[in-house]
Amino acid sequence: MASFFHKANLSDPCYNYTVLDHPWRAINNTDPSVIMCDRSVTWSGWYRLFINNMSAQIPDICVARSSCGTTVPLWIRGGHPTVQDGVVNRDVCGHFDNYCCHIGSFPIKVKACPGNYYVYELVRPTLCNLAYCADVSSFNSSSTAVTPATISTAYPSVDPCYNYTVLDDPWRANSSQPSNSYKCDQSVTWSGWYRLFINNLSAQIPDTCVEIYSCGTNIPLWIHGEHPAVTDGVVTRDICGHWSNYCCYYGSYPIKVKACPGNYYVYELVRPTKCSAYCAAVTNISSTHTTVTPETSPAGNVNITAQELPVNTSLECLQNILELIELITAQELPVNTVMRILKVVLSAVEKILESSSSSASPTELASYGNRVLKASEKLISILVKPTDTNDSVSFTLAAVEVEVFMVGPNVTLDKIPQLETTTSSVDIDLIGIAKNNNETKCLQNILELIENITAQELPVNTVMRILKVVLSAVEKILESSSSSASPTELASYGNRVLKASEKLISILVKPTDTNDSTSSTHLLNLVCVIVGLVFFTLALLTFALCRWSPGVNNVARINICISLLLAHLLFLLTQQFLSFIWPQQVLCAVISGLLHFLFLSGFVWMFIEAVLLFICVKNLSQISSKKREVLSSGFLFVIGYVVALVVVCVSVGLVPDGYGSEHCWIKMDKGFIWSFLGPVCIILALNMILFICIIISLNSSLTKLNADVSQLKKNKIMVFKTLAQCVVLGCSWILGFFTNGSKVLEILFLILNSQQGTFIFLIYCVLNNEVREQYRKFFRCLCCAKHH
Question: Of 81, 327, 412, 601, which sits with the fewest C-beta atoms within 10 Å of its C-beta?
């Protein structure tokens, strides 16, 4: 898989990784001829990316669909860490169906290394065709901005806290199990803001993972990220759907959330991308949550106490403590709680440093030291309470003294506050910083809004107004004499302003319609299948009503038509009414099992037809021999239907939940699709061998016949019949294994295999002299009847 393996003695992944240097992973690779899938790769350990001998990284903004040599390109959400951050976890998103995080994949670990590069602990994606992307600076122009939210140019005149629709469906409770059918919010017309109630109790959408098949649906939806505070106003939150043992397997369009006075939330709900439903949770049913992070209270606080923290003093234990602290989402914690947690952390660090048996390298210890400092900073920052004037908090531990001053916009202080410890004191202009923070906070909020825009197109005057606000905020910060921002901070804001401006200007470019080809293919498929069904019906009527020679055996042809007619008709109806059928999981599974049986029996009958045709051609040289039925009709029926039925029954027995995918077909996971592809591959291989033998035998027999039989006209008909027979025997299905995203091959495959009924009608009805004569008599009688 990789061309180079770099190994060092240290356990640090920055010096012990595998190089991943496939050129097709570049985000500017949009070649559809080869579609790669990382699900088939055996991932192990850490990887570093290279593209054309240049160090690369997995993009942390959304990339265009069908790039990176795959159908669903994977990128990481949350940005890359710094060297001081150590190893961090990042969610992986896949761009599909015009939504950047439509398909979630398992999280990966990321580490920034000295030397300005990153290493990744990659894992197997959840689906095919998904593949990790690679990006270097020269490819950045092909990136598409992340689209977790939309920006509105007009703020609602009415506060949604007092203008909402009540959503009080009892089945939405996260303790509710589906009864007879699965609920689906995809069919609901969502409009405006909603407040949730369960049994007359105020509820909220869970912000931790909920059990699959709960909330009255099979894919329960929850919000990724904690609920806001009242002071946060309207925020945007991503939506996750739990499926296939992964809490964020399906992403859905983001929603807006607002915390309201009175301790409740309102949501601007939108139509989900999958047939799924929003969950509702109240306090007395929150125990059904399956948490992917430590259990949170309704306010979003991680309940960590000193008693719950591990007492082991190993590095692994310290890492667990730090991870718990990093997962805290609370905006505010009591002083006593912060003191207890800090005491445990510092005690663990002290014992590790004193331990003579510690095998940690200096690099590891430095990394843990940075994480301890960041954890301490986070805990102390949580002590800061919102205030209009000023406030302070202080405490002392054995190894640290903490003093926190809080300054609000309406502060009235006679002198600059002084930070004092037992050994030193520092004068800090908190008032100036507070004033400057108002400007920088304003700019930061504006930039975050722009970064969250998902609109593909905005009017020119709207873009001009937004740019004017941004530039005005920048100008005020630069003119402020009390600005304490460092050159590095100013450069960071400058880069974000440039990126925001570039994004706004790019939105002025009207996107092309990417769904035209998909719609055209869908329409072509619909027309071809309908035409095929018509000719299947005509062929069946011909076989049933026409008089055939005694030696002609139409049993296989009739049953091919019956099996494929029913299969194509059922599949067509299922896809047309999929939104109504799929929520009924039992019905969906029954339909997929029936489709499995019908298509498989069609292939078995194709094999029987190939055998009968081969026997017929072999007997051409024995024209004078007595004609006899080689295989009885009863025996053929047993082979044609019982074989397919046995395969389906064995499949159900081995994998009971293998039927009922999102298209009401066989599920692709666990290799269950081979219950269909396996028998089909065997039959196609045998049919191809028999077809070649038929051509060789037919050519040999024709050369022995007189010249009248081998006239040019009859030879052309024989060639056409032979080629058409290839389609009848299903050999054209082999094309399906070589399409690989090629539109031409895909369309050719679609046409040939939807027209099996057409070719059967042409070969055995239209090109049969006896049948044509009966057609003429029928039409003459019909015309005579009209005249009389």
Answer: 412
Tokens of 136: 């270097």
What whole-number distance in Å separates Cα of residue 503 and Cα of residue 511?
A: 14
Residue 380 and residue 248 in one domain: no
Quote the number of domains for the chain: 5
- pLDDT-derived band at 7 (thresholds 50, 70, 90) equals very low
pLDDT at 307: 42
Please report the DSSP string for 168-232 in residue order. --GGGBTT----SS---GGGS---S-EEEEETTEEEB--SS-B-TT-TTSSSEEEEESPPPPGGG
| Residue 280 to residue 221: CA distance in whole angstroms | 9
The answer to whether residues 476 and 521 belong to one domain is no
| Pairing assessment for the beta strands 220-224 and 277-278 based on DSSP bridges | parallel
Percentage of residues of the chain with pLDDT beyond 90: 11
Q: What is the pLDDT of residue 626?
A: 42
Q: Which residues contact 627 (CB under 8 A, 6 or more apart)?
A: 550, 551
CA atoms within 13 A of residue 188's CA, in its CB half-sphere: 17
**Spatial distance between the Cα atoms of 16 and 47, rounded to a whole number of angstroms:** 9
> Would strands 220-224 and 234-243 be described as parallel, antiparallel, or unpaired?
antiparallel
Residue 81, pLDDT score: 92
Q: Which of 125-129, 399-403, 699-703 has the lowest mean pLDDT?
A: 699-703
User: Model confidence over 25-74: pLDDT tens digits?
Assistant: 998 888 877 788 888 888 988 999 988 878 899 998 888 888 898 988 99
The position carrying tokens 């903490």 is: 402
Same domain, 364 and 395: yes
Residue 644 domain flag:
yes
Question: Which residues 6+ apart lie within 8 Å of 277 measured at CB?
Answer: 172, 182, 183, 184, 185, 215, 216, 217, 219, 220, 221
Element (H, E) at 96: strand 87-96
pLDDT per residue over 542-590, tens digit each?
888 888 777 677 888 888 889 989 988 998 888 888 777 876 778 888 9
Contact 86, 371 (CB under 8 A): yes
Distance of CA 500 to the CA centre of its chain: 27
- 502 and 520 share a domain? no
Tell me whether the omega of the peptide bond preceding residue 320 falls within 30 degrees of 0, making it cis.
no
pLDDT at residue 174, rounded to an integer: 80
Using the structure block, give the residue that is written with the tokens 């992917």: 292
- Are residues 178 and 129 part of one domain? no
Q: Is residue 323 part of a domain?
A: yes
CATH number where 591 lies: 1.20.1070.10
Is the pLDDT at 653 greater than 60? The verdict is yes
**Residue 692 CB partners (closer than 8 Å, separation 6+):** none
pTM comes to: 0.40
Residue 390 burial (C-beta neighbours within 10 Å; 0-12, 13-18, 19+): middle
pLDDT tens by residue, 715-742? 555 556 666 666 666 766 777 666 666 7
Query: Which one-letter DSSP state was computed for residue 664?
Result: S
**Size of the chain, expressed as the number of residues it contains:** 788
What phi, psi does 189 have (nearest 5°)?
A: -90, 100
Question: Contact 220/241 with Cβ under 8 angstroms?
Answer: yes
Is residue 274 a contact partner of residue 219, using CB atoms and an 8 Å limit? yes
Which amino acid does the sequence have at 141? Answer: S
The enclosing H or E element of 615 equals: helix 585-618
645 — pLDDT class (breaks 50, 70, 90)? very high
Residue 640: domain span:
516-780
Which helix (H) or strand (E) is 448 found in, with range? helix 430-451
DSSP-based three-state secondary structure for 543 = helix
Do 196 and 245 sit in the same domain of this protein?
yes
- pLDDT confidence of residue 670: 66
Cα distance between residue 42 and residue 18, in whole Å: 13
Q: Is residue 153, in this structure, part of any structural domain at all?
A: no
Q: With contact defined as beta carbons under 8 Å apart, do 119 and 46 qualify?
A: yes
> What pLDDT is recorded for position 147?
31
* Cβ 440 vs Cβ 417: under 8 Å: no
